[in-house]
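#lab-general

N.A. 3:47 PM
ok so I finally got the sequence cleaned up, no stray characters, all 303 residues accounted for. can someone with queue access submit it? mine expired

B.Y. 3:52 PM
send it over

N.A. 3:53 PM
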Amino acid sequence: MNRMQLNALLVLVVAGLAAALYFTQKKEDKGAPLTTLAADAVTSIRIEHPGQPTIRLDKQAGRWQLTAPVQAATDPFEVASLVNLATQETKRKLPLAEVKLGELKLDPPQFSVTLNDQKLDFGDMEPLEYRRYVRVGDAVALIDDPSSTAVDADYSDLVAKDLLPAAAELQKIEVPGLTVARAADGKTWTANPAAADASSDALAAFTEAWRKARAMWNAKMPADGGQGEPITLTLKDGAAVHLVLVSREPQLILDRPDLKLRYSLSKADADTLLKLPEAPKPAPTGDAAGAATPAPAAAPAKP
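B.Y. 4:20 PM
back already:
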């Protein structure tokens, strides 16, 4: 048998082995969902940690709202992590008779999440594949560990990063050293104290910056928080949002005492939220730019 025939035979053997492996290998079936609920059927969520206030979220007119321990708009990405628990894949399921709940930290559970009326008790992490033990009814399931920011005892991550509701209409903005208010015509804005550079464009940009202001992240306001310069955002319906300017560097930090919440914004936001935009500087003229004026041509010499 020459080398060419030998190579061809080896190719056929390898191909045959690959085909046999492909057709005989048992494909792993996808695990069942953690609950029988469809994600869009979830309308209420409760998160309970021992010794901590219950966190409650309710779906109202198609939008999720935090309703306890405070009332606030929610971050859709964080809430999605909770809603998706309903259909999260079960990697393995164990009957209660085969486990010791205390050893899995399920008696009592570390915390519980209730979707509508379906209670999920969360226990310890499985040490080999780092999956979470969850008691569901009369069984214990193993699932991929959910986002800790969504299920922990601190509700701050669940609150919307936007400082104002999307539909909010501002009437007056009071920041340290400056007040910008809607004029009597309801369309234009005025500044107090008045400034030479308080153009209509600058005032509109200032109010729009506040309307779209968004934190990079939220945190629980510390016990000694709420100390600083007051900021008041009055809405057109008469409601007001009270903030406290804590610091400008290294990030712009604003506390919201009624929600016990601390917003961390970009340092650059201090330039758009705490003062009016600077008027554009006029383009330099030739003289202002230091350009030399051409000297007059010399008169021809007399013969």
